[in-house]
């Protein structure tokens, strides 16, 4: 799954969500909120994920 404003990865049951808007100092906008919501939903749907690190 590709995101515009975050980096998302899963390794050994750990989902990592990293804000990736350095040009705006990671300020929250509508796209970032949408990407976060989708990433959390993806982690929730993945049975291998045990924890989310933001």
UniProtKB/TrEMBL annotation:
Query: Gene3D superfamilies in the record, alphabetically?
Result: 2-enoyl-CoA Hydratase, Chain A, domain 1 (3.90.226.10)
List, alphabetically, the Pfam families matched. ECH_1
- Spell out the InterPro entries in the cross-references: ClpP/crotonase-like_dom_sf (IPR029045), Enoyl-CoA_hydra/iso (IPR001753), Enoyl-CoA_Hydratase/Isomerase (IPR051683)
GO annotations under biological process? isoprenoid catabolic process
Q: Into which family does the record put it? A: Belongs to the enoyl-CoA hydratase/isomerase family.
List the protein's name: Enoyl-CoA hydratase
